[in-house]
Amino acid sequence: MKTHLYEIAARRAISRRRLLQGAAGASVLASLGLPRAALAQETPAGPPGSPELRAQILQIPGVGRGSPTDADWQRVGALCLEATKANVAEGEFAGVELTFMGLNNQNLHNFLFRGFLAPWERYTGAKINWIDLAQADYNARLQQAIATGTVDFDILEMGAPFEGDTAGRGLLDEMPDWVAEQIDADDLVAYLKPPVGTWDGKTYRVTIDGDCHTMAYRKDYFGEGSITGLAEVPDTWEGINAMTKALAGTVNDPLTGLPAYGFLDPLKYQWGGFGFYFLADRAASYAKHPADPAWLFDPDTMKPRVNNPAWVQAIQDVMDLVAANAYPPDQLNADPNATAFAQFLGGTGAALTWWGDVGSNARTSDTSVVGDVVGFAINPGAERVYNHAAGTWETPAEGKNFAPNLAYLGWGIYVTNRVSGDERKRKAAWSAAAHLGGKDISLWMAAYPSGFQPYRNSHFNFDEWEAAGYDRAFVEDYLGSNRDSYNHPNAAIEPRIPGIFQYYSIAEDELVKGINGQYASAQETADAIAAAWEGITDQIGRESQIALYRASLGL
To answer: Which CATH class is domain 214-407+487-553?
Structure first.
């Protein structure tokens, strides 16, 4: 997205409600295009990490006061700048230019980074140029830069699964020790600590996100006299599927009065590799056996498991719902963004699985209508689990097998080796990364629409969220679903191996063919995915992939 389009989008982000707020004058002026330096200075209420500062930024703009704007992002960035000042002198990077490549998904990610880094640029003297990518274009753009040796960015927003493609090829700059101290890296939740963010014992990542998929559901679809007739939301895929089929053709959604639907799968799975996670949500509970850390490939041979009976069952689930006309019209053209932001938050459907954006947007976005009726849980389990080693289905000891999908291991900020030979530019790049990954600014990003979800132990202080305007029950429900997924003993963790998104992307292509009837069955669809995966493994190198996959599983 070009800079002038960003400015237009920032202007459009102001709702009429925000325009009428007397305290929003500075926000309005900034978002209408006046110079950023004209924004009024605001004094931090306390030092970095203090309860006073954290409470101050959580009131910007305040839960229930409309969607945050560019001016809000700038205010938060300025108030959280004190940690930078401890390591960087004013004007120290004058004349330094850096190129930052990241996402513009849902007008978040890079949009927020621009606002957060505007006061950093003013203080340090550095200038940042932006490469903005749609989510579906991200993998192709990154892989092109790697394959052609034309890495044209100094700072990169990237997920841990890509570390094999970048750190494994020597394309990243190692994190200086002062950065880890500034961002308080010890505060990360356990599953995001090393080896995540590291390669060959060196650290390369400033974590800014803690990804997992959880289930969001409409509480008004359940309970006595509800449209589903169910007391509670089902906690297994078998129950979810039955509910969704039963709702087919039902009218009078309790919130909108429009047709009612059950679970929302994004049937336009082709989303640059990221859409594959939504099939994996279903497959994990069938395929991730508690006694086996692997669920995507066989760790001794790299033979795909994606066409075993567990994955075939997940694909069959979706095909059965398509056949039952259980989805909204034109669901074949609904990608994951549509299911979350247009459908579910807009009042369509009873449930879906997604990242934490649904939770942070439900109560703080102008476009959400479900904030008062939304609930959260870990991903549904399954009434049977496939034992790949034995080649048989088993009934779980507890009656249900749960395997939360820790999808993507979170976004991080990385610095490329383009700056490694210029110490001043290198320090500037790492300072920008540290600012975005700071402990305080991260709390704001977890609590408001940002594209990121809780990832630090300190994010699970319910009192801070309640003081910001969230009600206690919502916070405990939302944060609890994240925490329980992160810490689940049978969590499905993906591997940090080269080409992982090549596997995912080609799986999306074949899956869409299957959903559209180009393959005769779920098994044939899964077999096509497996054959394509075998080709990728052979192209990259089977023996090296085996070694890296086993290492990622801790074997």
So the answer is: alpha beta
Q: DSSP state, 161?
A: G
Residue 22 has pLDDT above 60, yes or no: no
How many Cα atoms within 13 Å fall on the side-chain side of residue 516?
14
pLDDT, tens digit, 9 for 90 and up, residues 376-423? 999 999 999 999 999 999 999 889 999 999 999 999 999 999 999 999
Exposed/middle/buried for residue 289 (C-beta within 10 Å: 0-12, 13-18, 19+): buried
pLDDT of 551 reads 87
What are residue 218's DSSP bridge partners?
374
Q: Which helix (H) or strand (E) holds 287?
A: helix 276-287
pLDDT of residue 260: 97
Nearest to 447 by CA among 375, 362, 531, 508: 362
CATH tag, 51-207+411-452: 3.40.190.10
Residue 11 φ then ψ, to 5°: -65, -40
What is the spatial distance between Cα 371 and Cα 198, in angstroms, rounded to a whole number? 38
State the alpha helices, DSSP H only, in 174-275: 177-183, 237-247
**What gap in Å lies between CA 2 and CA 133, rounded to an integer?**
10
Same fold, 51-207+411-452 and 214-407+487-553: yes
Answer whether 203's CB lies under 8 Å from 197's CB: yes
pLDDT band at 321 (very low <50, low <70, confident <90, very high): very high
Rounded mean pLDDT of the chain?
91
Residue 231 dihedral angles phi and psi, to the nearest 5°: -70, -40
pLDDT at 189 over 50: yes
Locate the domains of the chain by residue range: 51-207+411-452, 214-407+487-553
Choose among 390, 398, 397, 403: nearest CA to 286.
403
Distance of CA 129 to the CA centre of its chain: 24
Q: How far apart are CA 279 and CA 318, in angstroms?
A: 9
- Report the relative pairing of strands 351-354 and 385-387 from DSSP bridges: unpaired
Determine how many CB atoms are found less than 10 A away from the CB of residue 521. Answer: 13
Is beta strand 405-406 parallel, antiparallel or unpaired with respect to 492-493? Answer: parallel
Q: Roughly what angle, to the nearest 10 degrees, separates helices 500-515 and 309-323? A: 40
Q: Which pLDDT band, with edges at 50, 70 and 90, does 204 fall under?
A: very high
